[in-house]
Design brief:
Elements (H helix, E strand, L loop, with lengths): L15 H18 L3 E2 L5 E3 H8 L9 E3 L5 E4 L4 H11 L7 E10 L11 E10 L5 H17 L5 E7 H10 L5 H9 L6 H10 L4 H15 L4 H11 L7 H20 L5 E3 L13 E7 L8 E5 L3 H4 L7 E7 H10 L12 E5 L5 H13 L4 E3 L6 H10 L4 E5 L1 H5 L2 E6 L5 E5 L3 H4 L20
Parallel strand pairs: 1-5, 7-8, 12-13, 12-14
Antiparallel strand pairs: 2-4, 3-4, 5-6, 6-11, 7-9, 9-10, 10-11, 14-15, 15-16
Length: 453
């Protein structure tokens, strides 16, 4: 029998695993520089924790089961409930604001497709205790810096709205069920124009209301700037009778976009008056990131969830967060040519001309590794010719050969595997003659090197 991963799961081999680790390290570096502190939460939680946040329907999307103690538990499908639970338990001990970053492996029982598997990794960024749009600005600025450092900053556009505004527009036009209306708006990218119009009708918007809504969208999208678009929306809807919540959402967006202009971030933002995000716990600003070509699923999603901490027994703590998935980021980097097509070979391969020199080679290998070089050596007691073939197979940049005559003079031979040139150098200073470690993936391509400042 041939064994393979379950449907929706995958093995990750070299060089992909190393490049994914580089992505995580890049995100971690940017988040730390922005003041986010890292937390870790369990991979298994009480199923009730998910039901408190998302309702009974979440069970269909989880890998849930009874543990040996008879408890209903689940593999965690998203990190927000766990982080909210953690903050609620420490709300009185943590001085606000709190900025947390978490890296998690997650599981959802969904239909696998491009950019979606049943097991995936995600980074979440959350800010607690900031009631104003400064939290949203910080999250959008940090995520923009992440994509810039990955080398794809120019490939990403951020869509921004306020859930209260989206709901208010629909209700002012005759919507009968606010939650159903928001679900329809959240699905619009997946529907044809005809199907979207039909579902809006089922949510209470008659043909005239739909025409007014689509006319508003055309007018707003024709404006040259986001702030002009917001002003146009305010003018066009002055007679619609938008409720206080919708007007509060509009005012919040106006403040956020004004800060975005002042900080230079707004150039990559797009005001989208129908962006709602389907999760019911969002209470204000919502945002998503997409590739500019519109070929991929969302790179991340998030928004403000001011009432969630209270659901888990904490006090009223304003909160805002986002989650970046690994799969669409990987697809974006592959498309941009920033994904390795082959293994990255070691910087040096230490070979010996005779077995009695192996103890000296082990000393050199350890010394070079401690100096920061990636170094391989023979583990199979092979003759020199086989060692050289192995160095070439592993794509080593340099072979360091220990031979009796050279060592008797205190030297080793350095052979450049690309040019074939070789030279004798002192054993005591080999590291001074080796090229320094190469740049991390993405360095020199549309942005600074990962980890650079």
């Amino acid at each position: 029998m041939t064994w393979k991963p379950l449907r929706g799961f995958r093995d990750i081999l070299p060089p992909d695993a190393a490049h994914r680790a580089w992505i995580t390290a890049t995100i971690r570096s940017v988040a730390e520089r922005a003041g986010f502190e890292e937390v870790e939460t369990p991979s298994v939680e009480s199923l009730e924790l998910l039901q408190v946040k998302s309702g009974e329907g979440i069970v269909e999307e989880t890998f849930s089961f009874r543990d040996k103690g008879g408890r209903e538990v689940t593999l965690v499908p998203e990190n927000t409930p766990s982080v909210a639970r953690l903050l609620a338990s420490r709300a009185k001990a943590e001085p606000l604001p709190v900025k947390w970053v978490a890296f998690s492996k997650l599981w959802r029982y969904e239909e696998p497709q491009a950019g979606r598997t049943r097991e995936f990794s995600q980074c979440s960024l959350d800010i607690f205790g900031v009631p104003g749009v400064e939290a949203e600005l910080e999250l959008l600025a940090t995520s923009a810096a992440i994509f810039e450092e990955l080398g794809v900053g120019g490939e990403v556009v951020f869509r921004v709205n306020d859930r209260r505004l989206a709901q208010g527009l629909g209700m002012a036009l005759g919507g009968r069920d606010p939650e159903r209306l928001l679900r329809v708006l959240d699905r619009r990218e997946k529907l044809s124009p005809e199907a979207f119009g039909q579902e809006l009708g089922e949510a209470g918007l008659d043909e005239g209301a739909r025409a007014r809504l689509f006319g508003l969208l055309d007018a707003v999208s024709a404006e040259r700037s986001n702030r002009d678009a917001l002003s146009r929306l305010r003018e066009e809807t002055a007679s619609w009778g938008l409720g206080e919540e919708a007007l509060a959402g509009l005012g919040s967006l106006e403040r956020l976009f004004a800060l975005g202009v002042e900080s230079g971030l707004e150039v990559s933002w797009r005001f989208d008056p129908l962006l709602a995000r389907g999760l019911a716990y969002y209470t204000g600003t919502v945002f998503e990131a997409y590739d500019r070509r519109g070929e991929l699923r969302a790179l991340f999603g998030g928004g403000r969830y001011d009432r969630l901490i209270e659901l888990f027994g904490g006090g009223p703590v304003p909160a805002c967060g986002l989650a970046i998935g690994d799969l669409t980021v990987e697809l974006l980097l592959r498309r941009a040519g920033l994904w390795p097509s082959s293994r990255t070979g070691p910087q040096a391969y230490v070979a010996v001309a005779s077995p009695e020199l192996r103890p000296r080679s082990l000393v050199l290998v350890r010394r070079l590794r401690r100096a920061g070089f990636s170094v391989e050596h023979d583990l199979m007691d092979r003759p020199l010719g086989r060692q050289m073939k192995e160095a070439a197979r592993r794509e080593a940049r340099t072979v360091i050969l220990l031979a009796p005559d050279e060592l008797s003079r205190g030297d080793v031979i350095l052979r450049n595997m690309q040019s074939g040139q070789q030279e004798a150098v002192p054993f005591a200073s080999v590291e001074d003659r080796l090229p320094r470690p190469p740049a991390a993936p993405g360095e020199g391509v549309e942005g600074p090197a990962p980890g650079g400042g």
